[in-house]
Write a structure and sequence with these properties.
six-stranded antiparallel β-barrel; single chain; mainly beta; 110 residues
C-alpha cells in the first residue's frame, strides 16, 4: 500500500486519559485531546479462513504523520475519535516508514 498525503481526508482526534479531581476533590479520569490531525482511515473487515479462525482483529486502521508522542507503544490504551464521533481503542501502532508515517490499529469502543 502506497501512502500519499492526498488520501489523508479524515480529521481525527487522539485522546488520552488523564487523572484529575472533580469539583468535590475526588479523583476522576477524563479524556483529553492529545492531538488533532488528518488521517487516512482504512476500515478492516473481519474474515475467517476454512478452519473458522479469525484473520482480522482490528476494526479500523488510521495512517497519520509520525509523532514521537505516539511511537514506541506510548499510545496503547489511548482512543481515536473519527469525524463521525465513533471511538476506537488503540491496540497497536506500527511505524510504516522511518519517522514518516504511523499506522494505528484500533478496535471500536463499545
Amino acid at each position: 500500500m502506497k501512502i500519499e498525503l492526498g488520501n489523508f481526508k479524515n480529521k481525527i482526534k487522539i485522546l488520552q486519559k488523564i487523572k484529575t479531581k472533580d469539583s468535590l476533590g475526588s479523583p476522576v479520569e477524563v479524556d483529553q485531546v492529545l492531538k488533532t490531525c488528518w488521517a487516512q482511515q482504512i476500515d478492516v473487515a473481519g474474515s475467517e479462513d476454512e478452519e473458522g479462525k479469525v484473520r482480522a482483529i482490528y476494526d479500523s486502521a488510521f495512517i497519520i504523520k509520525y509523532d514521537i508522542r505516539l511511537a514506541n507503544g506510548k499510545a496503547i490504551g489511548m482512543l481515536v475519535k473519527d469525524e463521525a464521533e465513533r471511538e476506537f481503542s488503540i491496540e497497536s501502532i506500527i511505524e510504516v516508514e522511518f519517522r514518516k508515517f504511523l499506522r494505528i490499529n484500533a478496535v471500536k469502543s463499545e
